[in-house]
Amino acid sequence: MPDNEEGSLNFHYAEFVIEAGKIKEFAQAIGLVNPIYFNKEAALLQGFKNIPVPPTFATVIDFWNDHGFYQLFGFLKLHPENVLHGEQSFEYVETMYAGDRISAVVTIKEISHKYGKTFYFLETIYKNQLSETVMLNHATLIEVGL
Amino acid sequence: MKELPSIIKPPIEHIDLVKYAGASGDFNKIHTVSHIANEKGYPDVIVHGMFLMGWASQAIEEWFPKRRLHRFGVRFMAPTYPGETLVIKGKLLEPNAEAVIDIGSLEIVDSKGEIKLKGSFELSKGEDGI
Predict the structure, then answer these.
(1) Among A31, A35, A5, which Cα is nearest to A20's?
(2) How many CB atoms lie within 10 A of CB B83?
């Protein structure tokens, strides 16, 4: 549920369990060919503890979440068809693996209006089941066509 | 600055966006339903920005198969539509012996030279000859 800490608006995702089959499907959809995404033995051979997630996999955690991006859109009163993606960056702290249970909190850092559009600056911090921060996500969403 | 080998991608097909929508969970109708995209003033469905960022991540893995990515950021510069043929171009800054990471940049460009995506990335150092 949304809350309000230290003056910034936070939105908590539901816990998301990373499944190996979802990693495979996502990797195929963007044309990744590295066997580490498809085969646990290949991942172990390259020094991973299990099948790792691809670099942009956070988007799966955001969209396939039972309480995630779609609910965040509702919370911000954004209509998805009026939203464009302006910028996106990821900082990789620890590797996320198949089997991990990920929790995430989105902070709405800033909302600004320019050129008749509204810009939303979001920061999402993902943690695994050990409460380790695994990834930081900074996104700019642009609301257009109003 | 070292040029990385350009990667020419096959033209994007509508089915690629169907697969990406299912894989990512982003079913936004401007990416999946042509007449909704038309009503919003777009000539066709818009390719998901994150689909292009995914392609860019694949390019980084092709250039540096053994490296670990520490940071990866992009700016989406222009809408992309099915049928377009895109090229991914990349550069690596001259490695700095004292730094613990290498820094690179990339662009996704269409056949007319329009830039669709600009990105930068930071990698672990590696012995891959680049």
Answers:
(1) A35
(2) 10
Domains contained in chain B, number: 1
Q: Where are the domains of chain A?
A: 3-143
Domain residues for the domain of B39 are 2-124
In angstroms, the CA A90 to CA A119 distance is 19
Structure tokens at B24: 């990512």
Residues in A touching B25 (Cβ below 8 Å): 59-60, 62-64
A63/B57 Cβ within 8 A: no
For A3-143, CATH gives 3.10.129.10
Residue of A nearest to B77 (CA): A86
Cα torsion A113, A117, A118, A124: sign = negative
Q: Do B25 and A54 touch (CB under 8 A)?
A: no
- Show pLDDT as tens, one digit a residue, over chain B (130 residues): 899 999 999 999 999 999 999 999 999 999 999 999 999 999 999 999 999 999 999 999 999 998 999 999 999 999 999 999 999 999 999 878 888 899 999 999 999 999 999 999 999 998 765 6
